[in-house]
Amino acid sequence: MRFYLTTHKRHWLRLTDKPLFLKSEHFDRAVKWDEARGPYAVDSGGFMELKDKGTWTRPPRQYVDDLRRIWEHVGPYDWAAPQDWMCEEAIIEGGWFGGQYFVGTHLSVAEHQRRTVANFLELRSLAPDLRIAPVLQGREVDDYERCVELYEKAGVDLRAEPIVGLGSVCRLQSTREGAAIVTAMAAHGFRLHGFGFKTLGLERVGHLLASADSAAWSSHARRRPALPGHTHKNCANCIDYAMRWRTRVLDSIPTWHPTPP
Fold this sequence. Notes:
By secondary structure, the protein is α/β, with parallel strands linked by helices. 37% of the residues lie in helices and 12% in strands. The strands form 2 sheets. It has a 7-stranded parallel sheet with strand order 3-2-1-9-8-7-6. Strand 4 and strand 5 form a beta hairpin.
């Protein structure tokens, strides 16, 4: 199990050999490039893209060019997410959720799944060398099973993929529904990555995941005083806090015995 710390601080790549998870957009304006000391993966930033715009505005070819530039300057990444289409109610229906406004795509779950698979196929065709991972999307177990079928019909053997992302489970991860989705997809023999997993979700299904990422350390730090000796108001952007939080999370999961990356 590889646990990535999600951060927008790309210079952390030169500061730690622990796995990091960064959005591709965080490299868009890079002038000075930091070579990665340890493993890292790249997120496409799909949640914010669809939340704020209701569609993808970055063409697949541009995204591939961005990924290639990151690969060449920072070093080979473990994998990169495609430009997938999340299936959460907020993303599809739009409106105010949790104090945030979502534009809404106003499409169906099935259409989001179709577009997710189509984008993966296009990206894989444009850049078969860039380790772009397929991602499963849906809301319920049956939805995810249908998404698996879409990949199979397209000739993609998900069991042979180094990693298969499990999308739209971030807000379900600690629930029975979320556990059922992870369990059903793991039963296929996929090496799953859980996007945005927190402690409760990892306690339930961490043993079924090949990897997971989380940015929860930052919101956790924002609600607490800075670490002793730290001069900032809080440690929401602090690598020391992030690393301590990571250790606490891993130590709190009794059924998970991580090995060094």
